[in-house]
Amino acid sequence: MQKLYNNGEFDEPYVENSFSTNLKLISTDISNQAISSLIQEEIPYWNFVRLLILRSLRYALITGRLDPKESGLIDLACRSIGIERAGQCLRAHGVKILISNFSRILSEFEENSPKRPVIPDYLQKNLQFFTDHLNLSETEADLFSFCILIQSEPILSRSLELMGEMNCTHVPRVLANLLNLPVVEVEIAFLPKNKLHQFSLVKLNLNGVSDISTCFKLIHQDFGQQMCMRQESPLEIILHLMGE
Fold it and tell me: What is the pLDDT of residues 116-160, one digit of tens each?
């Protein structure tokens, strides 16, 4: 990524404006449990979050779901993951150059990242309970954990909202692209006959138009947050939520 700056592809001097710092995004859009996990052991997870945000931005620009005129918004999202002056690059060189730069940065990120989605330690124990007891496949577990993180991690859900609304039937393909999973496996995992739907872990709405963060339902509207915050038995979490 540094090479892009050195080569002058993000070359405009930074101009102070209303999106002058990523602290606005960082302070309000990272959950407390995630902030407490910003230690060396969790770096792979944060690299994964950066990958997701950058993939969603590139997808939104390629498909035209994100208006290039929203350079301030793009700049803010990029700076939250350590990419400076993306908005200036967009205004100076246009959307094609920005997409090209995003692709090269993604290649660099992906070279140093695990192939499968990374789960933070504070979610891993509770997720493993469902994986073991319901015999979830790797793809089912990845999708389940991703939906939990969308519900519990504001920086992720708000970044995905930049992709805008889409026909809900397209969501499995978009999720496969974001998580680097086979499209067919994702489509199969969301079928009503399979475990995510059967056990009400994740029910995907395939009717109408929606954005990714609102196109699915978990067991309970607070389930994702509780799965990340509470380190007790997942069954107790469910009983607690059902008793509210």
Answer: 888 887 788 888 888 888 899 999 999 999 988 888 887 788 778
Is residue 114 within 8 Å of residue 44, measured between CB atoms? yes
Residue type, 151: Q
Residues in the chain, how many? 244
Dist CA 70 CA 85 (whole Å): 13
- State both tokens at 76: 């803010």
Written as six digits, the tokens of 25 are: 């995004």
CA dihedral 99, 101, 107, 112 (to 10 degrees): -130
* pTM for this model (two decimals): 0.75
Q: Give bridge partners of residue 167 from the DSSP assignment.
A: 209
- Region 165-178: mean pLDDT is 87
Paired strand residues for 209: 167
> Containing H/E element for 24?
helix 23-29
